[in-house]
Amino acid sequence: MGSISHLPELGADPEREYRLGIMGGTFDPIHFGHLVTAEQAREALSLDLVLFMPAGSPAFKQNSPVTDAEDRYAMTLLATAANPAFDASRFEIDREGITYTIDTLEALRAHYPLNVKLYFITGADAVLDIMTWHDAERMAKLATFIAATRPGYDINHACECIEASGIEFNVRYIEIPALAISSTNIRERIRHGKSVRYLTSEPVIGYIHKNRLYNTDSRERVDALRTVGEG
Ligand SMILES: Nc1ncnc2c1ncn2[C@@H]1O[C@H](COP(=O)(O)OP(=O)(O)OP(=O)(O)O)[C@@H](O)[C@H]1O
Ligand SMILES: O=C(O)c1ccc[n+]([C@@H]2O[C@H](COP(=O)([O-])O)[C@@H](O)[C@H]2O)c1
Questions:
Q1: How far apart are CA 182 and CA 45, in angstroms?
Q2: Separation of alpha carbons 154 and 173, rounded Å
Q3: What is the pTM of this model?
Q4: ipTM for the predicted complex
Q5: Any idea where the Cytidyltransferase-like domain is (predicted)?
């Protein structure tokens, strides 16, 4: 499974409880919806730190093309750099195979002493199907799930689905300022030459343009190279 390198120190004082937030996502690209969600969760649950964890090979996106993990990690690093309570982790992108949250939570649990509590942050869409995630019952024992409201998704419905599953998830629901931003929409806008300013941070936008991510040009370039390679 591999160890988690470069992890921040937490849990040194055995008399104190520490709270570690994990913001998991594909982050293709990371945007202000992710950052607001993490920051509001940090404040609402008094988290000591939020670790942004780009998924290496997202379990539910096996049939969709996903941008190279190094690019998604670089953008995550750029977007989180200015917040002292945020950190970006390579753990899931350095792991081989399909990325399952259970593997990450088990590794974090083994790494930190028990006075460090784990909080996995999700939006209302992702939390809706946590009962179908790999090894959901074991996962439910390792972390509290923070479910944040997201425009277009019904948090009450998510709540009902989780209850109906019969798995005893510990879920905390939080209301956050609504930002109807998605990575899909950002990718679409770039493909059509539209502005993505104020949907994600300037350094992320700079990185996208410098590396020609998401635009038709780069897609055509990849296809052309593939054709040459095959020919
Ligand atoms: N605007 C938002 N408000 C609240 N939560 C969000 C928002 N965007 C994403 N999230 C949450 O962040 C986590 C990671 O999301 P992800 O990286 O898949 O972004 P996405 O915008 O949903 O991407 P895509 O459009 O490619 O599916 C998920 O738990 C998701 O619910
Ligand atoms: O472990 C699983 O089976 C699993 C299935 C779907 C999603 N997840 C995690 O949920 C987070 C959001 O996923 P996504 O695909 O919406 O970006 C991310 O950390 C994923 O690794 C995890």
A1: 24
A2: 12
A3: 0.93
A4: 0.99
A5: 22-189
> Is-contact 172 145, C-beta < 8 A?
yes
Distance CA 35, CA 52 (A): 10
User: Which DSSP state fits 153?
Assistant: S
Ligand 1 contact via 34 beta carbon (within 6 Å): yes
The CATH label, of 3.30.420.10, 3.40.190.170, 3.40.50.620, 3.40.50.1970, for the domain at 18-179 is 3.40.50.620
Where in the chain are the domains? 18-179, 182-231
**Residue range 150-191, pLDDT digits in tens:** 999 998 888 899 999 999 999 999 999 999 999 999 999 999
pLDDT digits (tens, 9 = 90+) for 64-89: 999 999 999 999 999 999 999 999 99
